User: Fold this.
Amino acid sequence: MNKKKIKKEEVQGILFANIPLLGFVIFGLIPLILSVYLSFHTFKGLRLNSAVFVGFENFKTILQDELFYKALGNTGYVLLSCVVSLILSLIISGLIATDVKGAKGFKAVYFVPYVCSMVAITFMWKWIYDYNYGVLNSTLIEWGWISEPIDWLGSADFYRAAMFVLLVWSSMGFNIILLTAALINVPRDLYEAASIDGASGLKQFFKITIPLISPTMFYLLIMGLINSLQEFTRFQVMTPDGGPDYQGLTVVFYLYKKLFNASGGSDLGVATAVGWIIAVLISAVTFVNFKLQRKWVNYD
Assistant:
């Protein structure tokens, strides 16, 4: 009887343990295999039964498209905004972690954009940047800094700067929360010992603070870069047409336009091939970062 009970429990355990595996097969492995198939075929619209094998032609089409390289360049400045956001977050976290008055309030204010809808936040900034009624133009004119409104989202001279500010601002909240927690957990006696030895505040920062919070910084950097390579929503909501001179066209936005272009057609095979190129880029960036972490991340 006991053996039967044990066997029944083993069967139940195996069944429950296989539920995540089944989920991975259905929602991970099968779509992955299907995407490989799609990337080597061309289709009429979104009809899978119209597939025609073309080999690497889809990838060749992408690599010969100047707009793809434009999208890569635009994604590059999104990556830069991730790095700038991390640096600014570290500075602000350092100020908050020093028991400044109202620290909890500052944490909440910085974290609110992270928990709010990305679409809603982007629409808010779209209103701020509005040419005719935007708060930014109204304020700058009121202060006498400009004499006429600036077309922040319609001018190639200002578009990237406007989006850069949005990207940096919207990603700081999560960084600040984690970095503040990491800074608070740094032992105070290390700073006291360093002060006794005559170490300056700057030297303490680079010799004590940075090494001890480097694992947190590394995590935020990796996640930030991966999210930056997949950036799409903010640009699509802000400028659905891709922005002036396609400066708002990221690689994922480029994929979207290939899949659902304005003329109503679709290039499913090419769009899937773009997805694989993005996957390779993310893998390469992550691999390089894990290799470089040995030189600056301290886990002791």
